[in-house]
């Protein structure tokens, strides 16, 4: 019988290209593990205070506090596969890891627009060399695909590198299968998530700041995907819903028509942002005279913190903020978990 992580491995191994064959199941993470995340600037930033590597570390400490699992970030900005080969001993093998998560490929593709990318042959050979050295050192491997260079899923992204990304993604899947290591189709995970939350087909500012590097929502999303692969529960609350409660106090000079425009713009968001699971709104009718000037309340419901964090920078939400800002005097925001 397949366990949940085996099922997850099969699903992401398939990806969106209907690739044939599967890589290995995701490895079990036991006690006393040392996990190294190896990559480029995404992983370098991921080791920062709110980055995905740090979020993975905190989640592991929370869910397995006595397991003595160490999580290390080993990302360097601008790195391609050849760069990982050059520093593998110093930054990874000398640290005696038990598991290495390789998240690479963006620069191998992206830098091709300046004739500094990595050929498919060198990309394949480099991945095989890195994996071989890690396995010879006795460590397990999870190989991740490159993610995105532009967040559009309906139309073509400006740099027109989507096809090339998919080609390198397929190479990674083939290398993983050949070398019997787990393959995490992070590009496929991004595309599925963006179909849900990027209704405006924005190029950036949904899960990334610039189409590549992760924003807060992107870091939480990648952390959750990584935690699923590692078999560690994420911070999503099973059986609960996240309520995002907002109160507005409008300026005295704003007319009823202008306020109604704001209300209508807010009410239109659930049709534009698919991660909004429920929406309510109303005006204050309390007889207690304790509303402190707040007149309009809105309750937006999400299934997870990552869905909420993706909503905040979403282009449709930002367009709403532009309508709201000229008329807003005060705002109060309160988020809480509620039983389903």
What's the order of the H and E elements?
Answer: HEHHEHEHHEHEHHEHHEEHHE
CATH hierarchy: architecture of the largest domain: 3-Layer(aba) Sandwich
CATH H-level superfamily of the largest domain: SGNH hydrolase
Uncertain runs with pLDDT below 50, 5 residues or more? Answer: 1-22
Number of domains: 2
**What amount of the residues lies in strands?**
15-25%
> What portion of residues is helical?
40-55%
Radius of gyration: 22 Å
What's the overall average pLDDT, rounded? 90
Q: Please outline the major beta sheet.
A: 5 strands, parallel
Beta strands, count: 9
General shape: elongated
Number of helices: 13
* Secondary structure category: alpha/beta
Q: How does this model look, in words?
A:
This protein is elongated. The strands form two sheets. It has a five-stranded parallel β-sheet, sandwiched between helices. It has a four-stranded antiparallel β-sheet with strand order 7-8-6-9. The chain is built from 13 helices and nine strands. Helix 3 crosses helix 9 (216-230), helix 4 packs parallel to helix 6 (120-136) and helix 9 runs antiparallel to helix 12 (305-311). The protein has helices at residues 4-14, 41-46, 52-63, 81-91, 106-110, 120-136, 162-178, 186-197, 216-230, 256-267, 269-272, 305-311, 315-324, and strands at residues 34-39, 70-75, 99-103, 140-144, 182-184, 240-250, 278-283, 296-302, 328-339. By secondary structure, it is α/β, with parallel strands linked by helices. 41% of the residues lie in helices and 18% in strands. Mean pLDDT is 90; it is low at 1-22. The protein folds into two domains: 4-230, SGNH hydrolase (Rossmann fold, 3-Layer(aba) Sandwich); 240-339, Alpha-Beta Plaits (2-Layer Sandwich).
């Amino acid at each position: 019988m397949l366990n949940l992580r085996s099922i997850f491995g099969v699903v992401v191994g398939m990806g969106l290209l209907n690739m044939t064959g599967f890589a290995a199941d995701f490895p079990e993470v036991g006690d006393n593990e040392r996990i190294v995340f190896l990559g480029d600037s995404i992983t370098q930033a991921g080791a920062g205070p709110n980055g995905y590597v740090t979020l993975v570390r905190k989640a592991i400490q929370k869910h397995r506090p006595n397991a003595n699992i160490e999580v290390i970030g080993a990302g360097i900005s601008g790195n391609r596969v050849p760069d990982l080969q050059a520093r593998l001993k110093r930054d990874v093998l000398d640290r005696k890891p038990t598991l290495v998560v390789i998240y690479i490929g963006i620069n191998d593709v992206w830098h091709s627009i300046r004739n500094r990318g990595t050929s498919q042959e060198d990309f394949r050979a480099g991945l095989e060399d890195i994996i071989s050295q890690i396995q010879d050192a006795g460590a397990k491997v999870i190989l991740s695909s490159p993610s995105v260079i532009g967040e559009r899923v309906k139309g073509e992204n400006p740099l027109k590198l989507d096809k090339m990304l998919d080609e390198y993604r397929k190479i990674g899947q083939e290398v993983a299968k050949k070398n019997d290591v787990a393959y995490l189709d992070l590009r496929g995970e991004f595309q599925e998530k963006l179909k849900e939350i990027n209704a405006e087909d924005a190029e950036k500012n949904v899960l990334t700041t610039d189409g590549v590097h992760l924003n807060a929502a992107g870091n939480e999303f990648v952390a959750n995907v990584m935690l699923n692969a590692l078999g560690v529960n994420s911070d999503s609350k099973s059986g609960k819903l996240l309520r995002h409660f907002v109160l507005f106090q409008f300026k005295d000079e704003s007319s009823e028509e202008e306020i109604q425009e704001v209300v209508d713009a807010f009410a239109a968001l659930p049709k534009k942002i698919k991660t909004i699971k429920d929406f309510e709104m109303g005006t204050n009718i309390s007889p207690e005279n304790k509303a402190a000037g707040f007149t309009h309340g809105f309750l937006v419901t999400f299934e997870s913190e990552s869905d909420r964090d993706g909503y905040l920078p979403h282009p449709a939400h930002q367009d709403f903020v532009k309508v709201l800002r000229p008329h807003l005097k005060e705002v109060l925001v309160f988020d809480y978990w509620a039983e389903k």
